[in-house]
């Protein structure tokens, strides 16, 4: 659809008589005011009897400011969470006092989740229960001395099942096995809502980390995940402390024999070296291959990260939580939360010292943390890109300046020429789980493509929609075909892609994105009806065939694409090219008969046909184009 056909119910924002409506809200944003304070400028304007236009502008500015405030608060919260995790990791890297590290973890968990109490329990294998180890915010002595049997209460159930549990009212929740001692301790502390996550070493639960409130509340998924991250750090701190204890014991034994001292000192130096290197890599934002290179130097071998290690050895390493030997190599699984992410493989090193083995295992754990951090950052960017495209498709944000600013933060340029592409899987689905997994792969591949092409992507209508820039000399058809091939290769299934006509100046005309998406979907439906699954095409490829196949026939769009330039020329110049074109086809494409029907000189007909050729292109009289033009002419006269 051309820019001239776009209509909007909104008037362009002009200067307000009393200055910009955004000014008071910018001041509120600058000084970090509470959400309630944003009502004051509107209330004051009403009290002063200011014009309705001014009050409406203030209302709109207030909503935009509140969205900005919410976004800033979310960013500050995420920054605080990441900062706390890295600070805790830094404490762990320089671990000297296990109690101090665990206390810091509990304090930061309580602070970031905003709970009244946070506490940590450890399992006692000898007594077969779990006991309070560290508390923060607790005021009841009996609660601080609680011991929970396996399966008793929320904490005992977490310790027994190795799964997180959440309740918004513990004493009224019949999912848990209540005991007199536990319920009495909870009442003494006044706790109501409780969230508990397991502390895991490999597949073994060593304790539970809790966050609790003295009032009913619902713990969000992100909060549970954050508490789980702190639990992983706490487990790592305990494991590191145990490792240091083992190392000190080994040093005591080595002191009894000079030869053992010499042998073990080299091993310990390597372990210390890799510990320092890995800590440095984490702090300066190193990648997976940096970790492999550092461990290669320390172990005097070749360490590689791979996603295709031998399946049996990889599964054995994940199940045992240790590196395992496979022929002449050692394999350490890289996993997180039960998900297998790959493996670190030490090549050609069959004889491996236990400390070196632990070094390889520690490197695998660091690798999993780096992969998760990279994935979290990528997913966050994907969500932001999807939110911007959703707003463009739904018309929720119409301020060109804000749209451009949001796009710029994502390295996208809404002033460039773009194409909207609708993509959908077309492979056979074995079951619902297989289809859901394929859709996730399609979304991931589309998001990656959008990020690398400086575009946007969002999941919609069971498929994916992309907004990609169109390079000079490129066409919407070629872009659709490349996208179909790229996505199909990435997800290992056929992906069909329909593309809109090129769009310009999206920030000023955001409504054009929704119309272009519908056009792309119609092309997608036409491809599927024609049996061209796994292919890509644009609206210009189908002409009136696409119009016939489409469930929602866009007659105006077809006429505009086919003869719109001729119609517009007549409207601007007052010429009669459309009627000449109609008479030319009606007379069998004979200029002589055309001049008789129009009662003009044959030279006039020739001049008009030459002008039509320049507007429609040199191929306008080929059979295929001529058929489409005649169809468009018929529809043009019928719709007048």
List key phrases describing it.
about 650 residues; alpha+beta; 6-stranded antiparallel beta sheet; 5-stranded mixed beta sheet; 22 helices; elongated; disordered N terminus
What this model shows, in words?
The protein contains 22 helices and 15 strands. The chain has helices at 23-30, 40-47, 52-93, 98-113, 141-144, 153-161, 180-189, 221-254, 258-283, 288-299, 311-320, 354-394, 400-409, 432-452, 476-491, 511-529, 544-549, 555-573, 577-586, 591-598, 602-616, 623-638, and strands spanning 117-124, 129-136, 147-149, 165-167, 193-201, 204-213, 302-306, 324-326, 329-336, 339-347, 418-425, 456-460, 463-469, 495-499, 536-538. The protein is 56% helix and 15% strand. The protein is of the alpha+beta class and 640 residues long. Residues 1-19 have low confidence and may be disordered. It has a six-stranded antiparallel beta sheet. The chain has a five-stranded mixed beta sheet with strand order 12-13-11-14-15. A four-stranded antiparallel beta sheet has the order 7-10-9-8. The radius of gyration is 34 Å and the shape is elongated.
Secondary structure elements and pairings:
Blueprint (H helix, E strand, L loop, with lengths): L22 H8 L9 H8 L4 H42 L4 H16 L3 E8 L4 E8 L4 H4 L2 E3 L3 H9 L3 E3 L12 H10 L3 E9 L2 E10 L7 H34 L3 H26 L4 H12 L2 E5 L4 H10 L3 E3 L2 E8 L2 E9 L6 H41 L5 H10 L8 E8 L6 H21 L3 E5 L2 E7 L6 H16 L3 E5 L11 H19 L6 E3 L5 H6 L5 H19 L3 H10 L4 H8 L3 H15 L6 H16 L2
Helix pairs in contact: 2-3, 3-4, 3-8, 3-9, 4-8, 8-9, 9-10, 9-12, 10-12, 14-15, 18-22, 19-20, 20-21
């Amino acid at each position: 659809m051309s820019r001239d056909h776009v209509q909007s119910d909104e008037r362009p924002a002009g200067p307000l008589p009393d200055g910009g409506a955004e000014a008071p809200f910018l001041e509120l944003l600058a000084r970090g005011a509470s959400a309630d304070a944003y009502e004051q400028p509107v209330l004051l304007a009403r009290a002063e009897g200011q014009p309705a236009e001014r009050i409406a502008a203030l209302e709109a500015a207030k909503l935009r400011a509140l969205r900005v405030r919410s976004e800033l608060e979310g960013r500050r919260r995420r920054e605080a969470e990441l900062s706390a995790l890295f600070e805790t990791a830094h404490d762990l890297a320089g671990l000297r006092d296990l109690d101090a590290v665990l206390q810091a973890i509990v304090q930061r968990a309580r602070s970031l989740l905003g709970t009244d109490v946070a506490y940590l329990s450890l399992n006692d294998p000898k007594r077969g229960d779990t006991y309070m180890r560290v508390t923060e915010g607790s005021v009841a002595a009996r609660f601080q001395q609680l011991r929970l049997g396996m399966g008793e209460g929320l904490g005992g159930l977490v310790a027994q099942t190795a799964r997180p549990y959440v309740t918004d009212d513990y004493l009224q929740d019949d999912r848990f096995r209540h005991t007199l001692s536990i319920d009495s301790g909870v009442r003494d502390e006044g706790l109501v809502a409780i969230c508990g996550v397991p502390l895991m070493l490999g597949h073994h639960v060593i304790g539970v980390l809790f966050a609790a409130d003295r009032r009913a509340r619902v713990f969000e998924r992100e909060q549970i995940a954050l508490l789980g991250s702190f639990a992983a750090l706490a487990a790592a701190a305990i494991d590191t402390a145990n490792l240091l204890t083992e190392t000190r014991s080994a040093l005591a034994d080595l002191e009894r024999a000079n030869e053992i001292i010499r042998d073990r000192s080299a091993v310990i130096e390597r372990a210390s070296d890799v510990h320092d290197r890995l800590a440095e890599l984490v702090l300066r934002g190193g990648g997976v291959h940096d970790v492999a290179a550092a461990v290669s130097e320390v172990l005097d071998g070749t360490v590689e990260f791979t996603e295709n290690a031998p399946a049996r050895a990889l599964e054995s390493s994940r199940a045992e939580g240790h590196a395992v030997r496979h022929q002449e190599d050692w394999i350490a699984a890289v996993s997180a939360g039960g998900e297998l992410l790959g493996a670190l493989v030490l090549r050609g090193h069959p004889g491996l010292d236990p400390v070196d083995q632990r070094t390889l295992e520690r490197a695998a754990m660091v690798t999993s943390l780096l992969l998760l951090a990279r994935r979290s950052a990528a997913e966050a960017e994907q969500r932001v890109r999807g939110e911007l495209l959703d707003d463009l498709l739904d018309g929720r944000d119409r301020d060109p300046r804000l749209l451009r600013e949001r796009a710029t933060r994502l390295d996208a340029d809404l002033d460039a020429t773009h194409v909207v592409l609708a993509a959908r899987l077309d492979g056979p689905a074995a079951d619902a789980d297989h289809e859901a997994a394929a859709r996730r792969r399609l979304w991931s591949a589309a998001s990656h493509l959008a990020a690398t092409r400086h575009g946007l992507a969002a999941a919609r209508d069971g498929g994916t929609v992309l907004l990609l820039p169109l390079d000079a000399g490129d066409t919407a058809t070629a872009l659709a075909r490349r996208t179909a091939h790229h996505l199909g290769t990435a997800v290992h299934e056929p992906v069909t892609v329909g593309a809109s006509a090129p769009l310009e100046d999206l920030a000023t005309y955001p409504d054009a994105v929704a119309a272009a998406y519908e056009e792309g979907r119609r092309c997608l439906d036409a491809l599927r009806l024609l049996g061209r699954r796994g292919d890509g095409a644009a609206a210009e490829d189908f002409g009136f065939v696409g119009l016939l196949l489409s469930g929602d026939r866009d007659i105006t769009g077809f006429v505009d694409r086919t003869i719109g330039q001729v119609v517009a020329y007549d409207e601007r110049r007052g010429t009669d090219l459309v009627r000449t074109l109609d008479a030319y086809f009606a007379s069998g494409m004979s200029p002589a008969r055309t001049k008789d029907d129009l009662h003009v000189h044959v030279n006039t007909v020739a001049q008009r046909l030459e002008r039509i050729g320049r507007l429609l292109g040199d191929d306008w009289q080929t059979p295929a184009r001529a058929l489409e033009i005649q169809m468009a002419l018929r529809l043009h006269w019928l719709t007048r």
